[in-house]
Amino acid sequence: MSLLTYKYYDTPEGEDIYKKVFVTGKYATLTGLAVASFDVLMFSHPKGILNTTGRYMFYLGPLVGMATAFTVTANVAQKIRGKNDGVNYFLGGAAAGSILSAWTRSLTIALPAACVLGAAALVKKAAVDGGWVLMPSIPPSATKTIQSVRHDWTMVNDIDTLKTWTTGNK
């Protein structure tokens, strides 16, 4: 199985940790690129390639670190404890929260960040175990392509007896 097509839950918890780190790091990198691009274009306006790269690394580094800390902590805790439960995910969320507090350089955010991210990880674990869908996929819209105007999206068909107008010479 390729790393690019691998999903986090393709293998049980505690196995293929490197692949899982790659998957979570991939999502963190994409999120970091979007947030950093927004910051560079809208707020910070750095001058030069070095300062721009520094702004990107300011967001990418901690986000990838948080994703890696969560994945490694949750999977290593599962291997050590031998149980696949919410405690492992809470520990992973707490590890990610500690990196968040180090990123913000604030000790007052350390405990709340660890608790909030740990609770979010518990909710995700409960959703995975229970088969819940936290973020449903978006259904395709009627205006998906330029050819969509050719389709009839009305609720009912025209009823010929209700047409009281003429269309010209027939």
Characterise the protein shown here.
The model has no long low-confidence stretch (mean pLDDT 89). This protein has helices at 17-44, 49-81, 86-104, 110-130. It is mainly alpha-helical. The protein is built from 4 helices and no strands.
Keywords:
single chain, 0% strand, extended, 4 helices, 59% helix, 170 residues, mainly alpha
Structural class: mainly alpha
- In total, the number of strands is 0
Proportion of residues in extended strands? under 5%
Q: What general outline do the C-alpha atoms trace?
A: extended
* End-to-end separation: 64 Å
| Secondary-structure element string | HHHH
Count of DSSP-assigned helices = 4
State the helical fraction: 55-70%
How does the SSE layout of this entry go?
Elements: H1 17-44, H2 49-81, H3 86-104, H4 110-130
Provide a short characterization of the protein structure.
This protein has four helices and no strands.
